[in-house]
């Protein structure tokens, strides 16, 4: 902290800093029971279809600007900045806090893609780089109140790829990373997004975790077994089918546990219909990311992804007559994490 203070006091911010961070899919928890002392433990992967991009530059006054910037998003960014200057940047003189924050792109909120964590980490990292403060991403997350349940967003910010974290001990704020590896570049992921629905978030999410029944220890053991003996070997051996089967089995256990809070195994009935249709076609790997509503289907190449999207698009036209059909997006993994650029 002394080094950070010295750097903050000695630096006059003159550079522009841009940080771009990928969205992530949260594919399940290892143990919601915590019977052996650690709680949660998460499985996830960074994706390149959605990003949060923040640019910070000098200004005469504190400004937050950007295309399609809502009042709610503006408030969130302001609160992140306030928390930053109360903790990490507490020694920065007030005159040096006059900055222009330009929001160039954001991940859709409450869609299950990790928008909140990536916004906090992107703004926090940009502020730290702008003010010349050397600090790790886990430390930024801790000071900004992120990573309380999952370390996936923190790890994918730093490294991208496929990640498993080890959950939290009592009074621990950021979980350790147990495994990190590149996700196969030729594998594709078909996102099924419902723009007319939002996943559980905020106080409702906190309440849901409090009210959920105790997660059966046998299910935690089975998820851990599936992760260690199916999911990870499938990635190393590049077997998309085996990977998909393991994800689907894990998702069934987690989704059914969350069913009372989210209205079923999947939070969006439109997304659920499309995932079931994909399974009917023979696709083994389907999932809901976090609380949804975004669903995902794992396929082994681009040709199969395009074919699946064509089929699901037609399926949606004939199934959802109200015109509120899901949106289908082909994406792949982001294996490099956040990109940070600065200029004088």
TrEMBL record:
Keyword Ligase: no
Kinase among keywords: yes
Superkingdom field: Bacteria
Domain GHMP kinase C-terminal: 231-315
Pfam family, one: GHMP_kinases_N
Coiled-coil spans in chain: none
Segments forming domain GHMP kinase N-terminal: 81-160
GO MF assignments: ATP binding; kinase activity
InterPro entries (UniProt xref): GHMP_kinase_C_dom, GHMP_kinase_N_dom, RFAP_synthase, Ribosomal_Su5_D2-typ_SF, Ribsml_uS5_D2-typ_fold_subgr
Keywords assigned: Kinase, Transferase
Name this protein carries in UniProt: Putative archaeal sugar kinase
